[in-house]
């Protein structure tokens, strides 16, 4: 409680500082002669258009968004600085470079008049960049991956140029009383003399010290107290009941449809992901087909990102419903009806949101309620976002109905209550995303958006998954409940120490004050510490499963589900830990944010951790839902190895080397150059993109399709509901194991005079 309260207090302080120190949006921006260049309304309209038409899923602003198009903050700043210097050269200024830098660094915002004054050179530069964006957004899809040709009039482009110009101004002009810009001098741009600040370097150094010190402390604690971590029932031999002997409740049987929906969404997600990746390999055509006409890059990526959350969440919701009767020992009447209603609501949200995103990006609707809201990871329309939040609340109600009898008998610090509390946190922190609005100040909107992208996913969803994994081990008899409870509390502390305030590592350069960088860097370093712990524990997973398989009279039925949990530990350490820490250092992020190294971290952590866990939970439940005669260990094995090897291929053959090349280009020549489409699509990068193809094929054909087939078997051959005589309707008739005998143990060696 102390850790959680401290973390929330820190986030509250940072929220206050966000509102107090966000960059101003002037009522009007004028030239020195008083001519109005653009207004606050123009900036707001441009931001809304940028989001509604899915441009954040094409390029980025402040480094956040997609990776095919440019970062429009860096792009507008670079082009404006070039045009301003050219203006001074035309007027035979003796020091055009110095005057250009001085213009962009000087803060001419007048708070009393709520007006921003551009120099004559900046005003001329704005006109030139607006003209450039007219041509950029009018280009055919084969040049940009966007289908906006002929769809934006002059006023619409003017509002977009105004929004980009405002972000460029915040990135270059000095914060009042400081020597650096509102974005801590990001992006690196020699033309305006943006370079890393002292804070960027100092807090990078301190975050490295925090990582080393925290890791050493963790290892010392583990060395001192041997009771920490997963320790199995080594002295007991377990007989696992055959899956066919385990009586399932109606709600558990309903979960088969959830897993089929999960598998179908997973397949669609990877197919649209492959389509979006193909744009980077060949932007002009899709194997001779004009894919961009109906499926431009920004739509493909919107669906790819949104479906990643939806299919993983579907698996987690089903796993929660499936585990509740095993935890409570009973199921209330009508629970399965509520489960089917929830599934129907998920289908409505999924279809409605995808259709709305399609219509919004194509310009068929201007509504951000039913169309496209456009924030990365929160692209779905506001109505569908609210409906999904209500669906998550309904899911918690379903869990509470099933757990209610057990909760009355348990202390609030025990596992059933922790299961409920961790589930309750999921809708609570996803609903924070409702604070994000397309007309909100972009800095403030990004602050709340990352509560969902990071805090919801990397802290509270991680907590819920830890509780579920612990309960799976307890239900199987592999670990004692006291051991699982210790692991859960340890994880709560470790995740919360780094994961809560560590959210700020996303916001170094989004217009936040420097304390967000300071605290974000220090606490995000601590995020790697629990991932180190999980990697150590992955071997315990293998050991526990292996011991029981060898000693059991019957085969261990969940080998591949446990293997997926082992994969979670591996990818947690590699994808979230190593790759995440690599880009979270402020000095690295300064040059890297929004490049392929970000995509590398995102794929390795999102799919490697949450995707693998979703697949593992599905296999655990499907092992009981599919009759033994129809179950295929071979399909589970092929899916496991194909998903993991395919993901490793994506990471090491394409994303990681691409990221290194882009980082080198950013440091050597500039961030604008590294994000330019001429660099992204150069021959070397295109070769690396094509090199990813075998991994994608292995991932889809060998990984997703066998998993989808097992999900289909769960519906097609679902075990019937048969009430066992003498049990309550809907009760779980048998446990998953019986402890039959104590294993023979070797006597402790006697040590005399130092000789054993």
Describe the protein's architecture and organization.
Helices cover 65% and strands 4% of the residues. The protein has helices at 2-21, 40-52, 72-90, 96-105, 120-136, 141-144, 154-172, 198-224, 250-281, 297-328, 335-361, 382-407, 415-430, 442-476, 481-499, 514-526, 528-551, 559-584, 586-592, 596-625, 633-668, 671-675, 677-680, 683-691, 693-716; strands at 28-30, 36-39, 60-61, 64-65, 109-110, 115-117, 236-240, 372-375, 378-380, 737-742. It has 25 helices and ten strands. The strands form four sheets. It has a four-stranded mixed sheet. A two-stranded antiparallel sheet has the order 3-4. The protein has a two-stranded antiparallel sheet with strand order 7-10. Helix 10 (297-328) runs parallel beside helix 14 (442-476). The model is unreliable at 725-734 and 740-756 (pLDDT under 50). The chain is mostly helical and 756 residues long. Strand 5 and strand 6 (115-117) form a beta hairpin.
